[in-house]
Structures are given as structure tokens and as C-alpha cells.
Design a protein that fits this description.
heterodimer; A: mainly alpha; elongated; B: 134 residues; mainly alpha
């Protein structure tokens, strides 16, 4: 019973982290949708500034993903 | 409170819980991406929406990566194998988007480039569906 309770408590511990991520993604999706709607309403293509901001955002996230090599994955490490 | 890792029932429950909650965690975050964009009207808007949606998916992936690693008894966790798959799918999508953006900004986006970009981006965004089969 203690073990089950431990699992439940660990789940509850991790829940705020999960919900924070959910809120971030939800906000990013809403901002993108609003941006596209604005372009459509103004009948225009993205400006250089809008492209630059998006490019920078994606580049930052890609560097985070690419830099997140897990040391627990020996198959991803170079041999020798 | 310490979990007895030798107990086969608890070990099984831990593995099932870990796998299920990992998938739930990612689906939870990726599920919103389909709602991220309105239908674009021009090629540049289309590529911008694709790249923006990719950025939202990347954000979800980064958040997923930030969870504790699976392998112990952590019920909500990120699977290293899933993370490797995310990287494998993200790189070609990013490259395709860069090419499509260049073409769209020059007013020279052809249907083949757009289709290839859409396929790469949708493959990345569809990772959650792939995980269900895992």
C-alpha cells in the first residue's frame, strides 16, 4: 500500500511541471493563431521582423533539443 | 516510503504507469498543436504557419525533455528513446522549413517543396500518434 501511495505522491509532485508545460504550449499556439489571423485580416505576408522572431524562436528550441543528448543512451554515443 | 523494486507486481505497475504517463504527457502537450493555426491564404503565410506550428511542437518536446527520465519509479517521465526519435524527426523538418521559407520569401515556393516540408513537419507533429503504437 505504501508503494502505491508513493507512486500517487510522485505523480502529484510531477503534475505542476506537466501543467506548466501545457500552459506554455497552449499560450504559444494561441499566439501563433492570433498572428496568422492578423496577417489574413491585413491581407499581407509575414514581415521581415516576424520571420526573424520566428526563426530565432525555432533556432533556440532546436539548439535545446539538439543539446539534450541523454547520457543514458549509449547507442547515441560515438563508439571507441 | 520506499518501493520494493523486487516485487514483480509493483515493477510491472511501475513500467506500465511510466509508459502510459509518458505518452499522456506528450499527447497532452502535442494535442493542442492542431489548433495552432488558421487556414493561411498565401504561400508565405502557409510556410509561416507551418514553421510556427513546428515551433509549438518543439516547445512541447522541450517541455517533455524537461521531465524526469524514465527508468526508475517516476510516474511522469520522459523516455530517452522518445527523445531520440524527437531529434531524428526534428532535424529534417527544420531543414525543410528553412528551404521553404527561403523560397516563399523570394516568391518562388513550388508545390514539391511545400509538400516535402508539410510531410516533414507533420511527421514531427504526429509523434504522439506514433507513440501510441509503441
Amino acid at each position: 500500500m505504501n508503494a502505491v501511495l508513493t507512486l500517487v505522491l510522485q505523480f502529484l509532485d510531477a503534475l505542476p511541471l506537466l501543467l506548466a508545460g501545457y500552459e506554455d504550449v497552449k499560450a504559444a499556439a494561441a499566439a501563433l493563431s492570433a498572428q496568422i489571423k492578423t496577417m489574413q485580416a491585413e491581407d499581407r505576408d509575414p514581415t521581415d521582423e516576424e520571420w526573424s522572431a520566428l526563426d530565432a524562436q525555432v533556432a533556440t528550441l532546436m539548439s535545446t533539443i539538439d543539446g539534450a543528448q541523454d547520457p543514458a543512451q549509449p547507442q547515441l554515443l560515438p563508439e571507441g | 516510503m520506499i518501493i520494493d523494486r523486487e516485487d514483480p507486481v509493483l515493477a510491472f505497475l511501475g513500467k506500465v504507469g511510466c509508459a502510459a504517463l509518458s505518452i499522456v504527457a506528450l499527447c497532452f502537450m502535442l494535442g493542442l498543436i492542431g489548433c495552432a493555426t488558421s487556414a493561411p491564404k498565401t504561400p508565405a503565410q502557409t510556410v509561416f504557419a507551418l514553421k510556427g506550428g513546428f515551433g509549438v511542437a518543439l516547445k512541447a518536446a522541450v517541455d517533455y525533455e524537461g521531465l524526469p527520465r524514465c527508468g526508475g519509479v517516476t510516474p511522469i517521465c520522459s523516455d530517452p528513446v522518445v527523445m531520440a526519435r524527437i531529434r531524428v524527426l526534428a532535424d529534417p523538418a527544420a531543414l525543410a522549413l528553412s528551404a521553404a521559407e527561403d523560397a516563399a520569401r523570394r516568391g518562388a515556393l513550388d508545390p514539391q517543396t511545400l509538400l516535402a516540408t508539410e510531410n516533414a513537419v507533420y511527421a514531427f507533429e504526429g509523434l504522439a500518434a506514433t507513440l501510441k503504437v509503441k
